[in-house]
Amino acid sequence: MTWNDWKWQLQNRIVDLETLQDNIALTEEEKVSFQEASAFFSFSVTPYYLSLIDRNNPNCPIRKQTIPRPEELVWNPNEVEDPLAEQKFMPVKGVTHRYPDRALWYISHTCAVYCRFCTRKRKVSKPEETPNREEWEKALEYFRSHSEIREVILSGGDPLTLADSQLDYLLDQLNQIKHINHIRIHSRYPVTLPMRITPSLCEVLSKYFPLYLVSHFNHSSELTKEACSAIKMLIQKGNVIVLNQSVLLNGINDTVKDLEELNYKLIRSGVKPYYLHQCDEVVGSGGFVVPITKGLEIMFELRGRRSGISIPTYVKDLTGGGGKVTLNPNYLVSANETKLVMKNYNEDEFEISH
Ligand code: SF4
Predict the structure, then answer these.
(1) Which residues form the Radical SAM core domain (predicted)?
(2) Ligand 1 in contact with 111 (CB < 6 A)?
(3) What's the total number of domains in the chain?
(4) What would the pLDDT profile of 220-246 be if each residue is shown by its tens digit?
């Protein structure tokens, strides 16, 4: 087994403070917050993703996404454990069915790297949440019996944690359900574990065209040679249509320059920037949140001045499960949605025109 083997990378993840300190000099703040933060939401990083950290820069964008900081220990009043109310809309274990035409299916609760801003930190990384075979069958039965479902989104954790044969089985079962129009996979492995994209995985994925994969690149420095090769393989050998969603993150990608570089590099790599998400109000996320006013200003700068295909849609998933609203620099979509968006924000923060 070698560095380029995804199973080696997973088996050799750094998960504890001692091993992390053997690899990187932590700041005092990072040392202090590590134990408490990781007791609630596990710590894990692949050797590959760790190698991308600029060790001399405490503000390195990859470091900030990966290593707990004191802000994570602060739970603000507007923050909740399940901001998108995914548990409330769960008819069978592992399936969230909120919008009539699509369902989200959590087929794994493991990730290679646990992002400190994760919306699902309440359950991701917890082994008891990993769905078993019986639960898969119940979920499949649910999809078969609900003809209004046109799209199934494989999510997690990271769905690509599953073996090729397991993915093949699940994709095949979904593919046989006539009312399902298409399948989408959300994965951060092109970012944190690009060696997971192998010829054998692509052989499986290529059978299920049109298959959409949404990657989660947040910063241009994540688009390494390895990541770009993985994307190329997904597109050319896996026949996969690749889109990207980013989270707008304080001190990580919250400038016009950061997002321009990220989005141009995505386009250059064959990936369409799809969504830019306002960070969800999950517990301990305060250190990552960028004010909506600032996000709107960045989008205003980007739109109209940069290539249209490089511009994602800026959205907020409403806390409480109200769904996504578009955050548009020129207007917000309706008075009601405006009120919902602003519920947890200072109304003086930004001007609204309809
Ligand atoms: S990859 Fe996604 S599910 Fe996994 S920790 Fe990061 S944000 Fe959470």
Answers:
(1) 97-312
(2) yes
(3) 1
(4) 999 999 999 999 999 999 999 999 999
Write the CATH number for 89.
3.20.20.70
Query: What pTM, to 2 d.p., does this model score?
Result: 0.92
Q: Identify whether 211 is part of a domain.
A: yes
Q: Is the CB of 112 under 6 A from ligand 1?
A: no
pLDDT value at residue 338: 52
**Is 111 labelled a binding residue?**
yes
What is the position in ligand 1's atom list of the atom closest to the CA of 114? Answer: 5
Per the structure, the complete domain to which residue 116 belongs is given by 2-344
Radius of gyration of the chain (CA): 20
Q: How many residues does the chain have?
A: 354
Residue 352 lies in a domain: no
64 neighbors 251 (Cβ within 8 angstroms): yes
Please check whether residue 206 lies inside any domain of the structure.
yes
Residue nearest to atom 8 of ligand 1 (CA): 118
Strand locations in the chain (E): 95-96, 102-106, 151-155, 182-187, 211-215, 240-248, 272-278, 313-318, 323-326
The catalytic residue positions are 98-99, 102, 111, 115, 118, 120, 280, 317, 324
Tell me if 260 is assigned to some domain: yes
